[in-house]
Amino acid sequence: MDKLEWDDSLNINVLDLDNKMQAFFDVLNRFFQFDSIKRKKEEDYEAILEVFADLAEYINQHFKYEEKVLREFGYPEFKQHQKEHQRFVKRMLGYRRLFSDEPDKAYNDAVKYSSQWIVAHVKDDDSRYAPFVRVQKHLNDNKVPQKRR
Ligand SMILES: [Fe+2]
After folding, report:
1. Within 13 Å, how many C-alpha atoms sit on residue 146's CB side?
2. Using CA atoms in the order 98, 102, 108, 111, what is the torsion angle rounded to 10 degrees?
3. pLDDT tens by residue, 32-64
4. Cα(39) to centroid of ligand 1, in Å?
5. Cβ within 8 Å of residue 1, ≥6 positions away
6. Is residue 57 classed exposed, middle or buried when 0-12, 13-18 and 19+ CB atoms within 10 A define those classes?
7. Positive or negative: CA dihedral 86, 92, 98, 100
8. Where are the alpha helices (DSSP H) in 73-102?
């Protein structure tokens, strides 16, 4: 599995979300690194489980923050966007559960799925709300104060 590389075409230029998404990529890259290791030893499986846990925590934090931003700015497609996040969380939890019975399959499938999902999500979904949030933020920041009577 190739490392996920961030490039400027992925920037959505909304608050600090690009930095946070780059950190998301870093956590995923840590998760992917086991791909090249011959997973024969018990410790490798334990290490994967640890990163699975870190990943779950990071995903949760990231989505919570992003959804808070979208809710605050009143993004009209908030529900659909949140559903996409939930779909990802559910799939990853499924792989985590499968890991105890079929670790190799669960790990390989999780790597494949998450690497494809994240790039498609940033390009298709996150970039869709970006112009809306930027405009709303601009309007909020430049609100003319109400005149006192
Ligand atoms: Fe998102």
Report:
1. 2
2. 20
3. 988 655 556 677 788 888 888 989 999 999 999
4. 32
5. 32, 35, 36, 111, 112, 115
6. exposed
7. negative
8. 78-98
Predicted pLDDT at 43: 73
Contacts 24+ apart (CB under 8 A), 42-51: 45/103, 48/99, 48/103, 48/107, 49/99, 51/27
CA of 116 to the centre of ligand 1 (A): 14
Share above pLDDT 70 across residues of the chain, in percent, rounded to a whole number: 93
The whole-number pLDDT of residue 96 equals 93
How far, in Å, from the CA of 133 to the mean position of ligand 1? 13
- Per DSSP, the three-state class of 74 is coil
Q: What pTM value is reported for the model?
A: 0.87
Assign domain 12-134 to its CATH superfamily.
Answer: Hemerythrin-like (1.20.120.50)
Digit-coded pLDDT (tens) for 130-145: 999 999 989 988 887 7
Q: How is the chain split into domains, by residue range?
A: 12-134
83 C-alpha to ligand 1 centroid (Å): 10
- Residue 110, C-beta contacts closer than 8 angstroms, at least 6 positions apart: 31, 52, 92, 95, 96
